[in-house]
Amino acid sequence: HSCPTRRSSDLILAPNKQMVYDWVKTQPHLSLHGDAKGTTCLIRYDYDITSTDMAVDAMEKARILLCHGACFDEEPAFRLGYGGFTDRNQLQESLDALSDYLKTLE
Predict the structure, then answer these.
(1) Please, are residues 51 and 77 in contact by the beta-carbon 8 Å criterion?
(2) Share of the chain above pLDDT 70, in %
(3) Could you identify which of 1, 24, 54, 69 might form a hypothetical disulfide with 74, taking C-beta atoms 3.0 to 4.6 angstroms apart as the criterion?
Protein backbone atom coordinates (compact mmCIF):
# COMPACT_ATOMS: atom_id res chain seq x y z
CA HIS A 1 0.00 0.00 0.00
CA SER A 2 1.14 3.58 -0.55
CA CYS A 3 1.77 6.14 2.12
CA PRO A 4 -0.70 9.09 1.99
CA THR A 5 1.97 11.49 3.22
CA ARG A 6 4.31 10.44 0.41
CA ARG A 7 1.58 10.89 -2.18
CA SER A 8 0.70 14.32 -0.79
CA SER A 9 4.31 15.46 -0.80
CA ASP A 10 4.72 14.26 -4.39
CA LEU A 11 1.67 16.32 -5.37
CA ILE A 12 3.42 19.40 -3.97
CA LEU A 13 7.05 18.70 -4.80
CA ALA A 14 6.82 17.60 -8.43
CA PRO A 15 4.89 20.65 -9.68
CA ASN A 16 6.99 23.01 -7.55
CA LYS A 17 10.21 21.49 -8.84
CA GLN A 18 8.97 21.88 -12.42
CA MET A 19 8.02 25.50 -11.74
CA VAL A 20 11.53 26.24 -10.45
CA TYR A 21 13.15 24.38 -13.36
CA ASP A 22 11.02 26.35 -15.86
CA TRP A 23 11.89 29.61 -14.07
CA VAL A 24 15.64 28.88 -14.20
CA LYS A 25 15.34 28.47 -17.99
CA THR A 26 14.13 32.10 -18.18
CA GLN A 27 17.12 33.42 -16.24
CA PRO A 28 20.11 34.09 -18.52
CA HIS A 29 22.66 34.03 -15.68
CA LEU A 30 21.44 30.85 -13.96
CA SER A 31 21.73 27.12 -14.57
CA LEU A 32 20.76 24.04 -12.60
CA HIS A 33 23.49 21.92 -11.11
CA GLY A 34 22.44 18.28 -11.26
CA ASP A 35 18.93 16.98 -10.69
CA ALA A 36 17.21 18.12 -7.51
CA LYS A 37 16.33 15.45 -5.01
CA GLY A 38 13.94 16.37 -2.25
CA THR A 39 12.87 19.93 -1.54
CA THR A 40 15.79 22.04 -2.79
CA CYS A 41 17.96 22.51 -5.86
CA LEU A 42 21.43 23.92 -6.42
CA ILE A 43 21.54 26.78 -8.89
CA ARG A 44 24.76 28.06 -10.42
CA TYR A 45 25.15 31.67 -11.56
CA ASP A 46 27.63 33.80 -13.47
CA TYR A 47 27.34 37.10 -11.56
CA ASP A 48 30.51 38.67 -10.19
CA ILE A 49 29.66 38.12 -6.52
CA THR A 50 30.43 35.35 -4.05
CA SER A 51 27.53 33.23 -2.90
CA THR A 52 27.97 34.45 0.68
CA ASP A 53 27.86 38.09 -0.40
CA MET A 54 24.84 37.35 -2.61
CA ALA A 55 22.97 35.71 0.25
CA VAL A 56 23.61 38.67 2.56
CA ASP A 57 22.78 41.19 -0.17
CA ALA A 58 19.54 39.43 -1.12
CA MET A 59 18.44 39.40 2.51
CA GLU A 60 19.35 43.03 3.14
CA LYS A 61 17.97 44.48 -0.11
CA ALA A 62 15.07 42.20 -0.99
CA ARG A 63 14.28 40.19 2.17
CA ILE A 64 15.04 36.99 0.23
CA LEU A 65 16.64 34.09 2.07
CA LEU A 66 19.13 32.11 -0.01
CA CYS A 67 21.47 29.42 1.19
CA HIS A 68 24.89 30.29 -0.18
CA GLY A 69 26.71 27.62 -2.15
CA ALA A 70 29.80 28.10 0.00
CA CYS A 71 27.98 25.98 2.61
CA PHE A 72 28.38 23.06 0.22
CA ASP A 73 31.77 24.03 -1.26
CA GLU A 74 29.87 25.04 -4.39
CA GLU A 75 30.80 28.43 -5.84
CA PRO A 76 29.24 30.30 -7.47
CA ALA A 77 25.87 28.84 -6.55
CA PHE A 78 22.97 29.02 -4.15
CA ARG A 79 20.48 26.49 -2.85
CA LEU A 80 16.83 27.28 -3.47
CA GLY A 81 14.04 25.63 -1.52
CA TYR A 82 10.67 24.92 -3.11
CA GLY A 83 9.16 22.24 -0.86
CA GLY A 84 7.49 24.53 1.65
CA PHE A 85 5.08 26.10 -0.82
CA THR A 86 1.62 24.53 -0.86
CA ASP A 87 0.38 27.63 -2.71
CA ARG A 88 1.94 27.74 -6.18
CA ASN A 89 1.00 31.41 -6.56
CA GLN A 90 3.17 32.19 -3.54
CA LEU A 91 6.06 30.24 -5.07
CA GLN A 92 5.65 32.14 -8.36
CA GLU A 93 5.57 35.46 -6.52
CA SER A 94 8.76 34.47 -4.71
CA LEU A 95 10.48 33.52 -7.95
CA ASP A 96 9.37 36.83 -9.48
CA ALA A 97 10.86 38.69 -6.51
CA LEU A 98 14.10 36.75 -6.92
CA SER A 99 14.12 37.64 -10.63
CA ASP A 100 13.80 41.32 -9.73
CA TYR A 101 16.65 41.02 -7.25
CA LEU A 102 18.89 39.22 -9.75
CA LYS A 103 18.39 42.06 -12.25
CA THR A 104 20.14 44.36 -9.77
CA LEU A 105 23.28 42.22 -10.13
CA GLU A 106 23.58 42.75 -13.88
Answers:
(1) yes
(2) 92
(3) 69
Question: pTM (2 decimals)?
Answer: 0.87
56 contacts 95 by C-beta, under 8 angstroms = no
With b for 16 or more beta-carbon neighbours within 10 A and e for fewer, the 24-42 pattern comes to beeeeebebeeebeebbbb
Residue 5: its pLDDT value, please?
Answer: 55
**Helices and strands (DSSP H and E) totals, the chain:** 3, 4
CA distance 78 to 52: 9
Q: Which residues pair with 100 in a beta bridge?
A: none
Rounded to whole angstroms, what are the CA distances from 10 to 16, 54, 90? 10, 31, 18
Residue 62: pLDDT band with limits 50, 70, 90: very high
